[in-house]
């Protein structure tokens, strides 16, 4: 059981003792701290909230709404929604901020409060630290009976989101409709079950099959859209002779594709393909985090742009995108950020741009994937036990590989000629992630295995 308090939000497991899990008391405490911080900002007293399809979603939702109202804040409730839809609704509603109730790719026992500012973007590190200070001191004041906040339901936010996608200049609905795609979607028993089909229908796709389409939060498989979890989708695409498969995570901000032959397009190549299409039509720069494939850099240079890496984390990617005026960016986990739509990972705009690209190229998904350079990333993680000494672990690795170029901007990134390995702790889970990339799959796996063995030496 766990409770993780970070600048990116509050995440934990449901059930257990307050202060050790995401208990009802912790939900109220951190919602009150966030609401207090919002009240210290100028302007609106309106807050947008939405949730994914998790089992605990309704319970957490009721606690959050009541707490915000008790502070005197006016709640606009999207109810079941997607992370990017909530982000855009903050702007549509001219709200002071928003809370997304989702633990993203984590298993069903987890939930979280993801906190947004008035731009519909994740709060800054400084603002996150301030909110944690308020929570630690229980420094909040609730409103009197005549100043309690109001509650409003918004049932149109997803339609507004989809309409914005349809009107996006690089989305070609006519081309997608003409292509007559046959698509299988793995909705993982959450918000994708209604959001993705609604988008596809609006794009003119008529032949749609939904797997795991009951929104009950009892995920049919591990909800992280990784290769080992997508066998059902791969098999169904091949069985139905479909054009492609689409997989999203529970809150619909991560996206990956399956080729028509049942093979994986590769989550790392979601951003590569979308960036390739955007850069063909709009010259500019790109950004991804330093754990993402170098293929994005290759594609960016081919189109005359400049590629810039960032530290891992959506806030860091967005900040770097703003610094370099990037026209497209994101993360290798299938997160697409289209800045002139909104600065947030958005699987729905990713789907629309990918299908437009595919339709205009008149290629199969496998043929499109084959047009990009082949790199292989071995993605691994080591769970950390209570009382771990992270400084000792990282110092051990740095000393062992001191003859290699090492970047410490975000964890440790070690270069080995044309290969690399990146170690960092997660902001959302008690783990060390170990990513290694090479031109050869076995080489990437061997590099990661060697580093993991090195870590185990001092754990």
TrEMBL record:
It holds the Pfam family PGM_PMM_II. GO terms for cellular component: cytosol. Belongs to the phosphohexose mutase family. PROSITE patterns: PGM_PMM (PS00710). One of its GO terms (molecular function) is phosphomannomutase activity. This is Phosphomannomutase. It comes from the Bacteria. PANTHER family: PHOSPHOGLUCOMUTASE (ALPHA-D-GLUCOSE-1,6-BISPHOSPHATE-DEPENDENT), PHOSPHOHEXOSE MUTASE. The lineage of its organism: Bacteria, Pseudomonadati, Bacteroidota, Chitinophagia, Chitinophagales. InterPro entries: A-D-PHexomutase_a/b/a-I (IPR005844), A-D-PHexomutase_a/b/a-I/II/III (IPR016055), A-D-PHexomutase_a/b/a-II (IPR005845), A-D-PHexomutase_a/b/a-III (IPR005846), A-D-PHexomutase_C (IPR005843), A-D-PHexomutase_C_sf (IPR036900), A-D-PHexomutase_CS (IPR016066), Alpha-D-phosphohexomutase_SF (IPR005841). Residues 400-452 form the Alpha-D-phosphohexomutase C-terminal domain. One of its GO terms (biological process) is peptidoglycan biosynthetic process. Residues 8-139, 161-262, 269-373 form the Alpha-D-phosphohexomutase alpha/beta/alpha domain. NCBIfam families: Arch_GlmM (TIGR03990). It comes from Sediminibacterium ginsengisoli. Keywords: Isomerase, Magnesium, Metal-binding, Phosphoprotein. Its cofactor is Mg(2+).
